[in-house]
Amino acid sequence: MKIVVIGATGRTGEKLVHALRRDDVTVVEASPSRGVNTITGEGLDQALRDATAVVDVSNSPSPDGAAALRFFEASGRRLLAAGKAAGVQHHIALSIVGADRLQASGYFRAKKIQEDLIKASGLPYSILRSTQFFEFIAGVVQNGEADDVPIAPALSQPISRIDVAALLADLATGGPLNGTVEVAGPERFRLCDLAMEVLTAYEDPRRIISDPRALYFGAELTDQSLLPGGDARIGALRFEDWLRQTLQPTDRAMA
User: How many structural domains compose the chain?
Assistant: First the structure.
C-alpha cells in the first residue's frame, strides 16, 4: 500500500508520516522541499504514481483570506486532477470544525471551498474536520506582542496533533467514507482560560483580556462556533498532560 502525504514536512504531516510508518505502509513525503508542489504541479504526477491513497494536510502559507483562497483552490484543483489521472482510490483531507459556520472568515471560506472541491471531484474521499490544535493555541498566545492579549471566551474542545495524526492514519489505511467525520479533544475549555494557562506555564507576565468581540481568523465567535457535533471522535491526550510534556526540554521538539 502506497500513501502520499501532501504537506509531509509540516508539524501535522511529520506526525502523520511517523504514524503511517508504524503501520508498515509505503509513505511518500510530498512537499515543496521534497520536490513536490501542488500549485505548480512540479513532481506531483511522479509522487502519485501507483498511490493507493493521498492525505492532504497542507496549509496556506498565509492565513489571510485572499491568499488562503488562492492556495486551497489552486492546490485542490491540481491535486484532485492529478489524483484522478493516477487512479488514486482514496483522497483524505484535513479540515476544521466550524468551517461551514464561520464563513465571515476568509480563511474558513477557503477551507470550505477545499471541501466542496473534494466532494465534487468524483474521487472516493474522507474529510476529517479537527478542532483547534493545542499547539496552535499555544503558538497564537506566545507569538503575541501586546501587553494585553484579547481572546474570545468562546468554548472550544482542542486536541493534540498526535491524536489527529493517528486518526488520519486510520482513515488512510481504511476505506473511503465519502463523507465527513469530526475529531476533538477530551475536554472543553474557554479559549481565554486556555490562553491564561499557557502564559502561566511559560511565566509570561502579559494579561489575557476576555473579549467576546475578539476576532478569530477575522470572525466573531459564539459558544457553538468551535465545538464539534455529538458524533465526533475523541482524542486521548488531555491539555494539562500535553502542556506538561511540552515544558520538558526533551519533548519540545515533538510539540
Answer: 1
C-alpha–C-alpha distance, residues 186 and 197, integer Å: 17
| C-beta separation of 5 from 57 below 8 A | yes
User: Which pLDDT score, from 0 to 100, does residue 137 have?
Assistant: 84
Helix axes 191-201, 239-246, angle to 10 degrees: 30
What cell was used for 169? 492514519
Is pTM beyond 0.85? Reply is yes
| Domain span including residue 71 | 2-254
Mention every residue, 6+ apart, whose C-beta is less than 8 A from residue 103: 109, 112, 219
What does the pLDDT look like over 185-244, one tens digit per residue? 999 999 999 999 988 888 888 888 999 999 988 899 999 999 999 999 999 999 999 998
Q: Output the domain CATH number for residue 169.
A: 3.40.50.720
